[in-house]
Amino acid sequence: MTAMSQVKVDPFTIEIVKDSLIAIGDEMFHALARTSMSPIIYEVLDYASGLTDAKGQLLTQGNGVTGFIGMLTFMVKETLNKFGEEGLNEGDIIIINDSYVGGGSHLSDVGLVMPIFHEGKLVAFSANKAHWTDVGGKDPGSFSNDATEIYQEGLQFPCVKLFDEGKLNQSVLDIIKVNIRFPDLSIGDLWAQVAALRTGDKRVKELCEKNGAEVVQASIDHHLDHGEQMARKELAKLPKGEFYAEDFVDDDGFENGPFPIKVKVTITDDKFICDFRGSHPQVPGPVNCTYTGLVSAVRTIFLAATNPSQDVNDGVFRPLEIITDPKSILAAERPAPVSIYWESMQGGADLVWQALAPSLPERLSAGQLLSVCAVTLSGDHHETNEPFLIVEPSAGGWGAAKGQDGARGQFCIGDGETYNVPVEVAETRYGVMIDEYSLRTDGAGAGQYIGGAGVTRAYRAMTDKQFVSATFGRNKYLPWGLNGGEQGSPNEFTIEKANGEKDGPFGIYPRYPLNKDDVVKLMTATGGGYGEPKKRPAEQVARDVKNEYLTVEQAKEVFGVIVNEETFEVDGLIGRGA
Amino acid sequence: MRVATDIGGTFTDLVYVDDNGKVGVAKSHTTPPNFEQGVIDVIEKSGIDQQDIETFIHGTTVIINALTERKGVKTGLITTKGFRDVIEIARGNRPDLFNVRYKKPVPFVERYLRQEVEERLNQKGEVITPLNINQITELIEYFKKEQVEALAVSYLHAYKNPEHEQQTVELIQQLWPEVAVTASHEVTKEWREYERTNTAVLNSYVKPIASSYINRLNNKLVENDADSFNYIMQSNGGTTTFEQAKKTPINMVESGPVAGIYGAAYLGEIIGEKNVIAFDIGGTTAKCSLISNGEVKVSTDYYIEKDDLNAGYPIKSPVVDIVEIGNGGGSIAWIDEGGSLKVGPHSAGAVPGPVAYGQGGTEPTTTDANLLTGRLSPENFDYQVNLESVKQAIHDKVSKVYGLTEEEGALGIIRIANANMLNALKLISVRKGYDPRDFTLVAFGGGGSMHAPALARDLGVKKVVVPVASSVFSAWGMLMTDLRHDYIQTYINRLQDIDLSELNNEWNKLESQAKEQYAEENVKEEEIVFNRFVDMRYSGQEHTVKVPLAGGVINEETIKDVIALFHELHEQSFTFKLVEAQTEIVNLHLTAFGSVQKPELQKFEVENRPLESALKETRNVFYENEGWVPTKVYHRDLLVPGMKIEGPAIVEEPTATTVFYSEQTLSVDAYGNLLIELEVQ
Predict the structure, then answer these.
(1) Is the reported ipTM for this assembly greater than 0.85?
(2) pTM for the whole thing?
(3) How many CB atoms lie within 10 A of CB A276?
(4) Subunit contact A409:B89, Cβ cutoff 8 A
(5) Which B residues 322-361 touch A at CB under 8 Å?
(6) By Cβ atoms counted within 10 A, which residue in A61, A177, A440, B130 is the most buried?
(7) Is residue A1's pLDDT more than 80?
(8) Do residue B93 and residue A20 have CB atoms under 8 angstroms apart?
(9) What CATH number matches the domain at B2-68+211-252, 3.30.420.40, 3.40.630.10, 2.40.50.200, 3.90.1150.10?
(10) Which of residues A518, A536, A554 is at a domain's end?
């Protein structure tokens, strides 16, 4: 404890400064989205930004997706580790996307870190991390579902200075420019990231000038302690003991797999320990996830199980411990490919979720689509003849929970404040038409509360020589039901060619060629159900039939309700007990 | 005589200005569900002769209430084949990131009432599949059977070519004239099918409600022999006729609140302040909006029920940009599990209200804190105030936790409430690239004048204006409004190779549309004032910047100017510009005002009276660093132009209290507005 943090400040000033810090994080976050050049950032919000203290402890993070929660801290700590406080100067900006250290996910997610000084003293860091449309590598969009080593996945930025005391390192920028596709987009995004960092820098300095650095520091300490206290209060409410789950990651894109993964969750009065030892070692294909990726995923479920809507900072995660084997599929090391790391990462989160869900029905639901269901589609635009590139996640079905049906057509837990691309926008911008964007009402995930329907989105190619790559995990191991609810359906996609030929369904497929009028039909999972289907009120089942969420046959066979096809009234019950 | 009535949650306000510029005010209780009765009541209470009313302007919460209370009618939706679920999938986003039990907003139309027809346009508006008329006929039968009362029609790319929607609506009106119907292109011509569909659906959902309300109100007015021109306040800060309001009621969703913002802009114009921050504190919320160079900002990025945890429902109709937070006089102070003091968003409301009301409230509120620190006097309340119970509540719920005195705890509540409001004010100013020092804060609503001078100090604003009739200022603002219609057309084109004749043609089309609409509303062509804006961005970006554009024929020079201005505004908003990047237009935005002759406001006589004649009392007020200080309190009614008061001091009027601080000086202008200025140091 330093003398500084013992400064006595009245509780309200501390609170006001703390709120200012959160507002700064918020401002930085919105600044980035509004100036970005790439749909992956401004629609999908596949980025995070925030502030840490001088030691790299997260103070506030604006998130578009859950997948980045925790990564900023590691980026800053790596910066401190490499340069030391004395090696950092006012105006420096560090670029880092190393997958294995420093908060790495895959290379597409590029991080920037800026130290903030007040009167010559390091007081905080402003940091962000955003998914660039392209960082080079073997395939357009960079992340590749058939990479075998990291070198195929794009440029690596090993924590180097992009700005040195405010001066741009032009050489670094020049190297980036010639090594990436769509440099206008990614360099545009780089400027947006820089602008957001500088906003944070400016605001924190203003805060220090107004209140004094000591007061700001005291407020930071209070803020972190407050986060911890809130988390511990929630931890106290959780059931104590050991909880287990095992599942599989489908495959690695090379038909290896399935890969078993497992967890033991231990909850005590003051700890929440997730032990993933015994999970499969890292694999040849790019489904490997690095340790920090796993940390982010587990943090997500930790928050879901404790208090999903609290302000997030590193204090909140103090009770959390995560243990893995080295070189595990959940903690991969150089040079394992990691392009589609989210499959294992979400797999890790899902394990903790599965382990706790039966004991925490008020907080957790049945299983959901879980996979980002990432699609890249490239080719030439039919009007402009310019190349286009779609990089997007797919919405799907969520799991039902005690007291509620699963949400229909939502992005997976790893995404978040993620927006689909409107049909009218997609058809203007890309060389495609969309034949259908509808709910996939396959009747899976039956239960007292039913799983949310997945989504069908069908792209029709408007020119020849387009390529679609899709990574739809949870294709073989389906969203799980809870407490008697049935499991959901697989994520999958099929090809319907102009000549009537059909191909698929597939889970992971790299670069499937499409010619004009070929259609790729992307179908996401329906989530798992909660409770026994025969406990669903008969009138509700009849309503589901009327709404075409269920067929008459499903109502009868699965729910034991005979529904009149004309009037949609309940005509009788079968096997539903007294 | 011009008369404005504004329906609020508790009171229906009336403000009038007669032909001599004299302003009068009345208040009566709001009378749900027959809100029109409250309007008639307040007219009677004001004592004005209804036959003297030439212009009657009305602000109403009927639309927003029908939406949030789900009191609209059973509505059906017709969409392009393959897309009936767009309204349920929505955008797939989830603000409540870490909640695996997230509940997405339930669509206003259940799935069996969402039906598809064969038809398809491409992105250029060309017909790919012709409209299948037979299916529509069948659907009408289906919807009749399901006892639907309203229909919405929304087809892909209808913003580009409305032909199929128009044909569909014509057929519906022919075969089923009683049903209320809205085509998406009638309410918005912007792209993004979910947002447009939702807007069309919500418009239909409230259409019968709006018609019946407006008809009832109109009948009441006619009953009383009023022979006035009647207008309704829209969310864009302008008015429209009763007839038009029945067609697009969704444009009234923020009918009441925006009038105060517009009023602040108008007041600014009168007193020579072009840059204004309008700031309104009510019982449960505080609202603010920034007016730069006299221009009230209007956008279509509006949602209902959207917050940090919920995705809400988009409404793509033009709404004045307002930031609203859950911090008003009745906001409750509480301590979270981690021991932090919070104020709001929960409110004690009108019932039971703050502890001070003695109506059963037990949770301390901002109002209670203002009372305990001497900023308010027990005499300011309609109720018998028990100061001891206020002290007890603040002690138990706040002070005790921190080991502080009651007044220290109360001051903490005020400081936290101010910090919340300050963040909102920064959001619309500093964070948008504006320097607050260039702005004047116009404070109104029941609590605006209480907090504004303290906030002005922190924000760096040099002048605060507390207008006459500040507690009914929204209604005052309505008196000063013009008719206004917004026409927004998505028109994606790069500036570099833009076709000038086509662009000019588009503007002409929008302007003739406006002229036609005003002709229907009996507004003469020479009374119409056009303003043009383009929503612009760098190619590849999504978010746009609104850039004003000169009227008349557009030539290469105009294009150059608008690009230059765009770079400048982009830099102001986002700290950087990309002078070499391609720029493009996303929307053309035409605002058309039907300007109205407004009465000149009466000026006060300058009297040579000593300040002491306005002194009410001296009472102790508790300040942050000084503690208890005897502070002079003045009657606002007795203040006249020419008087000057050094802070700290208080000015009271029956429905509002102004508290200002050391280094601030209060004066009264010729119209009776209070001006509080920071002393130049």
Answers:
(1) yes
(2) 0.93
(3) 23
(4) yes
(5) 336-341
(6) A61
(7) no
(8) no
(9) 3.30.420.40
(10) A536
